[in-house]
Amino acid sequence: MELYHSSFPPIVTEETETLILGSLPGAESLRRQQYYAHPRNRFWRIIASLAERNYTEDYKLRIEMLTALRLGLWDVAARAIRPGSLDSDITGETPNDIPLLLKGHPNIKTVIFNGRKAQALYQKYFTGTEGIRYIYLPSTSPANAGFSFDRLLSAWRSAVIGQ
């Protein structure tokens, strides 16, 4: 029997201007029911740095930092088969209705892909929405060991703050 993993609801507010799309939650995120819960994933450390706040393990405070930056968060895949946490193992995916989310949140003008798999999945199922800017950023995953934290932060800062 194949095990399907499901994504979480989107984190968006009426003020969200940039939507960050991942691929699908990994095993630790599913266990904790939190986006980017793996302790070696650098996503929340990057968000804390962009918000000029101290890194915290408190998920509620993490979400507050994210939304204060007018950032939203979701995954391209609504559900998929994923035996572990590697993006390369995702198969049989069903996408989330991202165009509907964008239509319902007209302040979103930028979509950022957190890694190549998120971008590839999006391009597999959707065409770009007029008036939306799409940006690929290197993955914050620990599997992306080729990017140091400082190099990741620089790329993310340019895309998020430098808009």
Briefly summarize what is shown.
The protein is α/β, with parallel strands linked by helices and 163 residues long. Helix content is 33%, strand content 20%.
Q: Can you walk through the features of this model?
A:
- The protein is an alpha/beta fold and 163 residues long.
- Helix content is 33%, strand content 20%.
- The protein is built from six helices and seven strands.
- The strands form two sheets. A four-stranded parallel sheet has the order 3-2-6-7.
- Strand 6, helix 5 and strand 7 (133-137) form a beta-alpha-beta unit.
- The protein is globular and about 40 Å long.
- The N and C termini lie far apart (45 Å).
- This is DNA-deoxyinosine glycosylase.
- It is an enzyme of class 3 (hydrolase).
Give the overall pLDDT as a whole number. 92
By DSSP (H or I, 4+ residues per run), the number of helices equals: 6
The radius of gyration over CA amounts to 15 Å
Percent range of helical residues: 25-40%
Shape verdict: globular
Kindly, what is the distance between the CA atoms of the first and last residues, rounded to a whole number of angstroms?
Answer: 45 Å
User: What share of the residues does DSSP label as strand, in percent?
Assistant: 15-25%
Strand order of the largest sheet: 3-2-6-7
Order of helices and strands: EEHHHEEEHEHEH
Please provide the count of β strands.
Answer: 7
Main sheet properties: 4 strands, parallel
The poorly predicted ranges are none
Question: What structural class should be given to the helix and strand makeup?
Answer: alpha/beta
